[in-house]
């Protein structure tokens, strides 16, 4: 069996879990697949370490040979961000542009440093003296939210539009900003880039602004081609060139492919789709939206299964799992502070739902992007108390993400219901 065959089989498993969930568990799909990936990981651990099953051992060896930096950060990520951006309603975002800007820029940066400092002291206190730059790197990868599951719950329960837009807008844009912060710190940590503020700021802004400008250029070309295209199938193929060739070009030119995908997706999903619908009718544009929605769900499902198998290849210890559990309240605290601080100011000028900060804190789920960035940390370069830094960060991140999606995702409903009641009482 090779890596391609394994990915094919994992894809089938992800689809089967999603299908069975409709009739058995009836959870939100992402939560069901995440739960399934945990169960499969545990079964593989038992098969390999307790039963000595050779097939399971072969599967884990194949996973260990995959270059996750190339597969996730330079491959799947482009599709995930572009698909997510196509779903964004630009008009709804404009109503809360200042709130979303603060959540994306201020909150992501503040969360990165808060988690960096907290993890620096917590890791050291529990016997893993991780250097501060790597703690900041952990803060950068765990700060961006990826609330695919909670968004589905928010829409299903018909939460107030303001909260829905805040969660949706923040989750999409801070993916791009978070990845830029991560790549900047990654360059300092592993490639010897000077750590002085001027060089870091230059690296950050060149990466970010370059990505946005390139995304605008791709969107303009894509817009012209799509609205003048007569074949509906070619329209879909044009959109496919953006997260493939476009994302690859951004990576080659060392600018933010993440922000390029977000920028292109928002323009094509709002301006181009509306223009194309006027010319050819909604039926000829709806199938493109449906295709990308299904692609987004499928790739997220596959990603969780792949990362779940990656954990099986690592020498996981109870100490590392415990470290992950200890970091959960620290990360939630950093999230609460970084999200709540801007609202202290905003509430002086505008009324908000009293549950907004609570929902943004508890509903700020971590997901595939955090796992992808953690898996991209090089192996066998840095060792902390005998543990590979790569394994340590991936395991801690995995514990946080699993708790985030399963526990927080399943328990966010009461907060949303309270928000709905408050909105009804105010009217």
Automatic annotation (TrEMBL):
Residues 31-416 form the Cation/H+ exchanger transmembrane domain. It is found in: Cell membrane. The keyword Ion transport applies. GO terms for cellular component: plasma membrane. One of its GO terms (molecular function) is potassium:proton antiporter activity. Belongs to the monovalent cation:proton antiporter 1 (CPA1) transporter (TC 2.A.36) family. Keywords: Antiport, Cell membrane, Ion transport, Membrane, Sodium, Sodium transport, Transmembrane, Transmembrane helix, Transport. InterPro entries: Cation/H_exchanger_CPA1, Cation/H_exchanger_TM. The chain crosses the membrane at residues 6-24, 31-51, 71-93, 100-124, 130-152, 172-191, 203-227, 297-316, 322-345, 357-377, 392-416. It comes from Pseudoalteromonas agarivorans. One of its GO terms (biological process) is regulation of intracellular pH. It comes from the Bacteria. Coiled coil: none annotated. Pfam families: Na_H_Exchanger (PF00999). It is a multi-pass membrane protein. This is Sodium:proton antiporter. The keyword Transmembrane helix applies.
